[in-house]
Amino acid sequence: MCTYVTENVAVSGSAKGQGGWSSVSRATVYFDHPFHAPLEHSLNIDFTDPRDEGADASRRVAVELSAESARALAQAILATLDSGEASVNGAAAAATAGR
Amino acid sequence: MYDGTLAETIRISGYGGELIKAYFARPLGPGPMPGVVVIHHGPGWDEGSKEITRRFAVNGYAAICPHLYHRAGPDASPDDAAAAARAAGGVPDQQFLGDAAGAIDFLRSLTYTNGKVGCIGYCSGGRQSFLAACSLALDAAVDCYGACVINAPPPGLPFKLEPCVHLADQLACPLLGLFGEEDKMPAPAETGELAKVLEDLGKTYDFHTYPGAGHGFFAVDRPSYRPEAAVDGWGKVFGWFERYLAA
Fold it and tell me: Given CB atoms, is A34 within the 8 Å cutoff of chain B?
């Protein structure tokens, strides 16, 4: 089945594709038929920058992941953010206390 | 019999007179031959869609597959254009109909076609095939597992899809429907409801639902491929077009 399930998420950052690094402002996340991955359905993410009117459709960075690996990735992202931000905040607190 | 074919990307006049890419394949024999518009699936104007187009040519049809996502990325690869079209909410029905009308006009303008034109669509193209059969001058149509004819897509999505069963009374050509029993969109209940609508309207149609097959059973390069259903389905497609598109 075609799910049509799609979400456009505003993001802030950069991505590297065929043309090198560029800013990205939108992630289109969808679970549907992949173009390349040998799966019936996959979790697909396209990073683009629709603010850049000069950029054509080729300026995207894309992934097509199995559902299982996409969930593992999502958990890893959240865990890494939690640990990383705690580490940064802890270091900042220690530096403040040491003044 | 000589079996040479020609296949190439051309440009046709689509919606609003805009030139769009289309993949065109035809037998090199003199004709007259029928025409077929191939409507690609959601993932776009890909190699599989072009292979289907060539298959029609090998079997005696002038076939054309318009690039429905052309405007989303005129110079981009088909997958990038498909991604851009999805992010923008898909293709509006009126735009599709304009592109399909351009493809039909192109086929009828050829000196070696017999004036009869059919259409066939897969996945989202199945719904569009139904839409075209209700809206444009066609002689036969095939809907391969097109969803959202009866039921609306899940709410809250950026897609501009609306059910189009209300157009069924305008269906002006015979419609063949090929579906998978394990498909969820369209599920057998939805295609059964569509069959009842067509039956009540007295339309010419023939629906087949294959056991052991789900969505995309014709797609040879995907895990959804089901050879038994696909081989039988191809036989029904060629039988349908031979019946209704012969001069």
Answer: yes
Distance, in Å, from the CA atom of B52 to the CA atom of B20, rounded to the nearest integer, reads 19
Q: What are phi and psi of A56, to 5 degrees?
A: -95, 180
pTM of the model: 0.91
**Who's near A54: CB < 8 A, 6+ residues apart?**
none
B41, B75, B79, B123: which to substitute to probe chain A, counting the most A Cβ within 10 Å? B79
Q: Which residues of B106-129 are buried (b: 16+ CB within 10 A; e: fewer)?
A: bbeebeebbebbbbbbbbbbbbbb
Q: DSSP letters along B90-158, please?
A: ---HHHHHHHHHHHHHHHHHSTTEEEEEEEEEETHHHHHHHHHHHHS--SEEEEES--SSSSPPPTT-S
**Number of domains composing chain B:** 1
In tens, the pLDDT along A63-88 reads 999 999 999 999 999 999 999 999 88
Percent helix, percent strand, percent coil in chain B, to nearest 5? 40, 25, 40
Two tokens, residue B13: 């006049």
User: CATH number for the domain including B14?
Assistant: 3.40.50.1820
Positive or negative CA dihedral for B62, B145, B230, B133?
negative
Put simply, the chain A residues between 35 and 64 with a CB less than 8 A from any chain B CB are 35-36, 38-40, 46, 48, 50, 56-58, 60, 62
Residue B163 belongs to what domain range? 5-245
| Residue B182 forms contact with A (CB below 8 Å) | no
Angstroms from B214 CA to nearest CA on chain A: 7
Q: Does residue B145 have a pLDDT over 90?
A: yes
User: Residues of B with CB below 8 A from A28's CB?
Assistant: 83, 86-87
pLDDT tens for B156-170 read 777 778 899 999 999
